Amino acid sequence: MANEWATFGADLHLELRGPRLRAGLMDALREAVRSGRLEAGSRLPSSRSLAVDLGMARNTVADAYAELVAEGWLTARQGSGTRVARRAEPRRAEPRRAEHRRAEPRHPEARPATVPAASPARALPRPSTPAHNLKAGTPDLASFPRAEWLKAYRRALTAAPNEAFGYGDPRGRIELRTVLAEYLARARGVYARPERIVVCAGFVHGLMLIGQVLRSRGVRDVAIESYGLGLHAGLLTGSGLGTPVLPFDERGTRVEESGPLGSVGAVLMTAAHQFPLGGALPPDRRAEVVDWARASGGFVLEDDYDGEFRYDRQPVGALQGLDPERVVYLGTASKSLAPGLRLAWMVLPESLVGEVVAAKGVVDWVSSAPDQLAFAEFLSSGAYDRHVRAMRLRYRRRRDQLVAAVAAHSPETRVSGIAAGLHAVLALPPGTEQDVLRAAAWNGLAVQGVNQFRRPTVPATLDGLVVGYATPPDSAWQGALQALCRVLPQAPGGA
Fold this sequence. Notes:
The protein has helices at residues 21-35, 47-54, 58-71, 146-159, 174-188, 203-216, 230-238, 283-296, 350-363, 369-380, 383-409, 433-442, 474-487, and strands spanning 3-8, 12-17, 74-77, 81-84, 113-115, 132-133, 197-200, 222-223, 248-249, 252-253, 266-269, 299-303, 327-332, 344-347, 415-416, 423-427, 445-446, 448-449, 464-468.
């Protein structure tokens, strides 16, 4: 055990104990904040200077700072340094009685150090926000086609009948459903007729409606993939449905009937581009899950969230085309245009249309009719196709830059899931994901780990980053890429 003291200013002492120096430093800083010896807004020394004074590795101090930032004890802003976060008013330390401690052997890395006092903060900082955002799930919002959308909106409003501003059909505007049927058949291989399409206010809205209908039909469980958004599982659970998890292997989700599929009424899948791992469901498994639905009377809920974006392969058609009576197709404009439009759609088996429409009428949660009309005009004029083609080229260029930068800076890091979509998966050495995420937070980078999307019952066998390369605007892309490279593991002897 070691007993070491670092002095911040005239009277602040941090007691560092034991061989686990990072944990000791974190405990000492927490106690200093709790006791009021480190006040809100106080600026801490840089990781480099504190490491020198304490005789520690700089990474040890940087990791301690980053973890305390993640816990909310500290804030880190570029150009402002690391400061104590604004918290509830701390209790003041009561005078301590002298304590007699038995002398303990020092840890060889530690030595007494005095850290120069930092200048007092001029103002209490706001909680820090990341300088760079590489979280998956959002397109480049700065690239929204404002001029073309405005033209479409004007044309749509000029031609709109008066009744378009009433409550209307709960399935959505017929103008949009008609154009969507044509587009989905052409671009995604979906068998769609306007009367089978229901427009909804986002994928979440559609999944809520389907969950409600399935539960009313007596379905007890909906199988889900091993990795995916917890929000979606939570919505199904909120509808009273169990969510058993499908196993996976190196080829993706396993769909044999001997597994969870043998006892469920439906399965939720991202077949064309699995989220977040990035692969496409192999052809034999696509056929297998549809055969299961036919034989059991179950349904496949197909989340085709970013099906328009593919780069190095031919388009993978929607699963729905294999059996329109057993597959519920859910698509959205959130990735191709913007999530703020709240425009999504379901293409339903004929047997479900009436029940979903009835459920939607009860919820009374719809996209605005003018927005639906504008989107219909945007589609029919060809502006949507042009926008998707332009964004496909832009996102492919970013993907290629990401792959090249990772190969140059961290050649041991494997990049996968890049043939389609808006994100990539960067494999990390086992057990390093949390360390890399802490380093990312320290570098002002918002990024997600693979295990954030792992279902609780699935063993932790993968470590990696899920990098949303579509998210930053062009002006921030290079900075985000550089921040990412700074936190990736390097080969021995790397710069």
